[in-house]
Design a protein that fits this description.
Elements lengths: L7 E3 L7 E7 L8 E4 L3 E4 L7 E4 L27 E6 L5 E5 L3 E3 L4 E4 L5 E3 L5 E6 L3 E4 L4 E11 L2
Parallel strand pairs: 2-4
Antiparallel strand pairs: 1-7, 2-6, 3-4, 3-5, 5-6, 7-13, 8-12, 9-10, 9-11, 11-13
């Protein structure tokens, strides 16, 4: 599973584009997929327009905090709190929350319940690929992924 203390993993020669100054519609963890509305970021349950990935909250945590209970990746944004979300670009790498299950390197992934990635089946929109193999992921665990050029799985 992802081990870094950041949601955005690269490439580091480009600055990721973000959306900010919008409130989350509910308490949400970083690494969760959301949809951007006019004034809010709401939890996504499937692929749709204006899909984003909720950023980490490193500005709330002291250096080294990922080693204790104040890990910015495990600290949820509170409902109505202003958040930051990444605008997804193909080829960029992130850590994202996944549904419980097993994942293989290169596996196509789609957005499922609770804004978490899950294995893509025929007819699903593929939004990312697993960048690592994981056996026994728990719901909400973070997985290294690479954003796909969205397409419908055959």
């Amino acid at each position: 599973m992802g081990k870094a203390n950041l949601i955005y993993r690269g490439p580091h020669d480009r600055h990721p584009r973000t959306v900010s100054e919008k409130a989350v519609a509910a308490a949400l963890l970083p690494g969760t997929f959301v949809t951007e509305g006019a004034t809010t970021l709401a939890q996504a349950a499937a692929h749709g327009p204006m899909v984003r990935l909720l950023a980490h909250r490193d500005f709330y945590a002291p250096a080294g905090s990922w080693f204790d209970g104040s890990n910015p990746l495990k600290t949820a944004y509170a409902a109505n709190e202003t958040a930051v979300a990444y605008i997804l670009e193909p080829g960029h790498q992130y850590q994202a929350a996944v549904a419980a299950g097993n994942y293989t390197f290169g596996q196509p992934l789609t957005i499922g319940a609770a804004g978490r990635l899950t294995a893509a089946a025929a007819g699903n929109v593929v939004v990312a690929f697993a960048s690592e193999a994981v056996t026994g992921a728990a719901a909400g665990d973070l997985l290294d992924i690479e954003i796909a050029n969205f397409y419908t799985a055959a």
